[in-house]
C-alpha cells in the first residue's frame, strides 16, 4: 500500500511543480538533446543534416540508452530494481500497473524528475497531500525516466513544458488469475436426490462400516461422498506413509452445499484408514469453530468407530482441562500413552492441550480436518494452525514411535527426500462457503491442493482475486430450498413472526436475529404472547444449557428456536422445515449457512427473510450477485396481522415489565 501511495504522491507532485523545477528540467533536457544530437551526427552524418533539430529521425529505432553520461542508470538495471519490490501477488500486480502508469508517463515522469543531487525546494503552494509523501520516500524513489529516449523527450524542449498534465495514456490492465487448482476443480454432482451412488459401488470400505451405514439408514452415498471418499482412500492407500512413488498426498478442499453430507465424506475414509492401526496415537484431528459443532461431529465419529477399537476424544472446554487430559493421555511406567486415535477439538482448547498436557503428542498425526474452513481461516489470528503444524513436525516424539519414520514438512522433491519412508500430514478442508481467495487459503499452507466443488456453472472463470473484490464468490444452495423475502415495517416484524408461526404450523422453526439482545427480547415477547413453545439460543447460556436446548429442539419440545448466528453453521437438526431471518444477515455467507439449516439431505425447506424497505435493495442485490436461486416475495397483508394486535399489545406490556425487572436485578 505504501508503495502505491508513493506513486500517487509522485503524481501529485508532478502536478504541483514549480516554475523553478521546470526550468532545471528544461535545461537538463536541452543538454541531453544536444548530446544525442552530437552522437547521432557522428554516427549518421548525412541523416543528421537532413534533420535540423537532430533530436529524432521519424521512424528511427529508440536507442537503448541515449546518454551514457546521464546520471540515470541504464534502463534494464532500473527495471530489475523495481521488479525486486514486487511480491508476485495479484494485488501487487495491480499496484505495479498503477506505478508503471505513473512512471511510464512521458510528461508525468518528466515533471517528477529532480536533478540528481539537488533537493526539491519546498514551496508554500505545495499540495498538502503531496506534502504527506515523506522526504525519505522521495529520496528512495527510483530516478524517473525523463532521459528515456521516447518520442516526447526528443521533441523540442518547449513541448516538455506541458508538465503536470495528467497522463491519459492507458496501459493494458494486468489480469489477476486464479491458480489452476481453484479455477479447475473436480466437479461434484449437485443433486443429492438424483446423483446417488450405491454403497457397494465404492470399493475399499470395510464391510463393518458398510453395515453401519445401512443401519443408520444410509443406502447410497451423496455425490460429495462418492467423490471425496475414493480420493481420500487412494491418497492413503499406502497406509500412513507417503503416497505412490514417494509423493506426499495432495491436501483436499471440499466446497459443497449445506446439508450435502460433507461430514460422512471425511468420517468414513478416516475410520477406514485408521482401522489397521496397531498402536493408539492421535492420527486424526478435526478442528471446528464451536463446541456444538464439535459435539455433533464427534457423535458421528463415535457412531462409526463403535466396535472398531478406535477411540474418539472431544476437547472443547465443556469439561475441565484435567478431565479432558484424562481421556487424552495415560501415564504409565514406560511413559505417556495416547488414549485417543481421533480428536475433535475447538481451536482454543486444542492449543491449551498442546501447551499444557504432558504426553499430548501430534507427532503421529496423519489427517488434519478443518471443518467450516472459511470460518476457521477467519480465526487464524489465534495462530492455532502454526501451533498444530509445529507440534506435528517438531514436537516431542511419541513413545513407541519409530525413528525410521521421520516427519519432514513438505518441500521440494529430491531423490533423497523420497528415499525414506515418511508419514505425511494431509489437510482436509470442508465448507459450504469455502473461500476462493488464494491469499486467504495461502495461510493454511496447503500442499498441492485439490478442490472438489459443486459450484455454479462457469463460477470459477468469473471469480477474480483482487484487493477490493468479493472473492467469496457464488455459492451453491440446496436444491430443495424455496426462499422468500417479506417486506415489513419495523413495528410489524414481531407480528409477522407470530403470523407465520400460527399459519404455517411447522413443528421446528429456526429464527435468526443479529444479536443476543434481539434474540432475548423476541423470545420474551413470543413467550408473553403465548401459544408457541419457544426458546432462545445464544452465548447468554453456558455450554450445558445450550446442549439441552438443542436436544429439546431436536425432540420437538421447542417449536420456535430464536437464535443468534451460534446455530447458523453446521448444526444438523432433522425436521427443520422453516428458517426465518428476523434480522436480515449482512453477508451472503451468513445467509447461505442460516438458510442451510433447512432443506438438508435432499429434503425440501422454506426460508423467509423479513426486510425493511431500506434494506430491500441491498439485500436483493447481494443475492443477485451470489446468483442465488430466485428469491420470491411473500406479502403479509395488514388485515392478517390485525387480529393479532390486541394480544400482541398485552405481550408488549408484559415484555416491558420483564425487561425492567431484569434491568433492576442486574443493577441490584
Ligand atoms: N448418504 C446419505 N444418505 C442419507 N443421509 C445422509 C447421507 N449423508 C449424510 N446424510 C445426512 O445428511 C444430513 C446432513 O449431513 P451433514 O451434516 O454432513 O451436511 P454438511 O454438508 O456437513 O452440512 P453443513 O454445511 O451445513 O455443515 C445429516 O443428517 C446426515 O445424517
TrEMBL record:
A molecular-function term among this protein's GO annotations: hydrolase activity
Biased composition (Basic residues): 113-124
Region annotation (Disordered) ranges: 34-159
Class of enzymatic activity (EC top level): hydrolase
EC number: 3.6.4.13
InterPro entries named among the record's database cross-references: DEAD/DEAH_box_helicase_dom, Helicase_ATP-bd, Helicase_C-like, P-loop_NTPase, RNA-helicase_DEAD-box_CS
Domain named Helicase C-terminal: residues: 496-645
Domain Helicase ATP-binding: 243-452
Basic and acidic residues compositional bias, start-end: 34-48, 86-98, 125-144
Coiled coil: none
Keywords for the protein's UniProt record, in alphabetical order: ATP-binding, Helicase, Hydrolase, Nucleotide-binding, RNA-binding
Low complexity composition-biased segments: 103-112
Pfam families: DEAD, Helicase_C
Top-rank taxon: Eukaryota
Keyword Nucleotide-binding: yes
Record field: compositional bias (Pro residues): 60-74
Catalytic activity: ATP + H2O = ADP + phosphate + H(+)
Function text: RNA helicase. ATP-binding RNA helicase involved in the biogenesis of 60S ribosomal subunits.
Family as reported in the entry's similarity comment: Belongs to the DEAD box helicase family. DDX51/DBP6 subfamily.
Comment text on domains: The Q motif is unique to and characteristic of the DEAD box family of RNA helicases and controls ATP binding and hydrolysis.
PANTHER family with a match to the protein in the record: RNA HELICASE
Name the record gives this protein: ATP-dependent RNA helicase
Gene designation: DDX51
Amino acid at each position: 500500500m505504501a508503495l502505491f501511495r508513493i506513486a500517487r504522491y509522485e503524481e501529485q507532485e508532478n502536478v504541483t511543480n514549480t516554475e523553478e523545477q521546470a526550468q532545471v528540467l528544461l535545461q537538463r533536457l536541452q543538454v541531453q538533446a544536444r548530446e544525442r544530437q552530437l552522437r547521432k551526427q557522428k554516427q549518421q552524418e548525412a541523416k543528421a543534416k537532413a534533420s535540423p533539430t537532430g533530436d529524432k529521425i521519424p521512424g528511427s529505432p529508440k536507442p537503448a540508452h541515449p546518454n551514457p553520461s546521464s546520471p540515470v542508470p541504464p534502463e534494464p538495471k532500473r527495471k530489475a530494481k523495481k521488479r525486486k519490490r514486487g511480491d508476485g501477488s495479484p494485488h501487487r500486480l495491480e499496484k505495479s500497473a498503477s506505478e508503471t502508469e505513473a512512471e511510464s508517463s512521458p510528461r508525468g515522469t518528466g515533471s517528477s524528475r529532480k536533478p540528481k543531487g539537488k533537493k526539491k525546494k519546498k514551496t508554500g503552494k505545495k499540495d498538502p497531500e503531496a506534502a504527506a509523501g515523506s522526504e525519505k520516500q522521495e529520496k528512495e524513489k527510483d530516478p524517473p525516466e525523463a532521459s528515456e529516449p521516447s518520442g516526447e523527450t526528443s521533441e523540442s524542449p518547449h513541448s516538455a513544458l506541458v508538465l503536470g498534465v495528467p497522463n491519459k495514456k492507458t496501459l493494458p490492465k494486468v489480469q489477476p488469475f486464479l491458480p489452476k487448482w481453484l479455477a479447475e476443480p473436480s466437479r461434484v454432482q449437485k443433486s443429492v436426490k438424483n446423483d446417488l451412488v450405491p454403497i457397494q459401488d465404492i470399493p475399499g470400505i470395510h464391510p463393518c462400516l458398510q453395515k453401519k451405514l445401512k443401519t443408520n439408514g444410509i443406502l447410497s452415498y451423496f455425490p460429495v461422498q462418492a467423490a471425496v471418499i475414493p480420493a481420500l482412500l487412494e491418497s492413503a492407500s499406502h497406509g500412513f506413509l507417503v503416497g505412490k512413488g514417494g509423493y506426499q498426498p495432495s491436501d483436499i478442499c471440499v466446497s459443497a452445499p449445506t446439508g450435502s453430507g460433507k461430514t460422512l465424506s471425511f468420517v468414513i475414509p478416516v475410520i477406514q484408514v485408521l482401522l489397521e492401526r496397531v498402536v493408539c496415537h492421535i492420527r486424526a484431528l478435526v478442528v471446528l469453530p464451536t463446541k456444538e459443532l464439535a459435539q455433533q461431529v464427534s457423535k458421528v465419529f463415535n457412531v462409526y468407530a463403535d466396535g472398531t477399537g478406535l477411540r474418539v476424544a472431544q476437547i472443547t472446554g465443556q469439561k475441565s482441562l484435567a478431565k479432558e487430559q484424562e481421556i487424552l493421555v495415560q501415564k504409565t511406567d514406560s511413559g505417556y500413552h495416547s488414549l485417543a486415535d481421533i480428536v475433535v477439538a475447538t481451536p482454543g482448547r486444542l492449543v491449551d492441550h498442546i501447551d499444557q498436557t504432558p504426553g499430548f503428542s501430534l507427532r503421529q498425526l496423519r489427517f488434519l480436518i478443518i471443518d467450516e474452513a472459511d470460518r476457521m481461516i477467519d480465526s487464524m489470528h489465534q495462530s492455532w494452525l502454526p501451533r498444530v503444524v509445529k507440534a506435528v513436525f517438531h514436537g516431542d516424539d511419541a513413545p513407541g514411535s519409530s525413528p525410521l519414520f521421520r516427519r519432514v514438512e513438505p518441500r521440494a522433491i529430491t531423490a533423497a527426500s523420497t528415499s525414506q519412508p515418511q508419514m505425511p500430514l494431509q489437510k482436509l478442508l470442508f465448507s459450504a462457503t469455502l473461500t476462493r481467495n488464494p491469499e486467504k487459503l495461502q495461510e493454511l499452507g496447503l500442499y498441492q491442493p485439490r478442490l472438489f466443488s459443486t459450484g455454479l456453472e462457469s463460477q470459477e472463470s468469473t471469480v477474480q482475486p483482487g484487493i477490493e473484490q468479493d472473492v467469496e464468490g457464488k455459492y451453491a444452495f440446496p436444491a430443495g430450498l424455496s426462499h422468500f423475502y417479506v417486506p415489513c415495517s419495523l413495528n410489524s416484524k414481531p407480528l409477522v413472526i407470530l403470523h407465520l408461526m400460527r399459519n404455517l404450523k411447522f413443528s421446528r422453526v429456526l429464527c435468526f436475529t443479529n444479536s443476543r439482545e434481539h434474540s432475548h427480547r423476541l423470545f420474551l415477547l413470543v413467550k408473553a404472547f403465548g401459544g408457541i413453545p419457544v426458546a432462545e439460543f445464544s452465548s447468554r447460556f453456558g455450554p450445558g444449557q445450550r446442549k439441552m436446548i438443542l436436544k429439546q429442539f431436536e425432540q420437538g419440545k421447542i417449536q420456535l428456536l430464536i437464535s443468534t448466528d451460534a446455530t447458523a453453521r453446521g448444526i444438523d437438526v432433522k425436521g427443520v422445515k422453516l428458517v426465518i431471518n428476523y434480522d436480515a444477515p449482512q453477508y451472503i455467507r451468513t445467509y447461505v449457512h442460516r438458510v442451510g439449516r433447512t432443506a438438508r439431505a435432499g429434503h425440501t425447506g422454506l426460508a423467509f427473510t423479513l426486510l425493511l424497505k431500506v434494506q430491500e435493495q441491498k439485500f436483493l442485490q447481494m443475492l443477485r450477485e451470489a446468483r442465488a436461486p430466485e428469491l420470491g416475495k411473500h406479502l403479509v397483508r395488514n388485515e392478517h396481522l390485525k387480529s393479532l394486535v390486541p394480544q400482541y399489545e398485552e405481550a408488549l406490556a408484559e415484555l416491558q415489565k420483564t425487561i425492567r425487572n431484569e434491568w433492576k436485578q442486574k443493577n441490584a
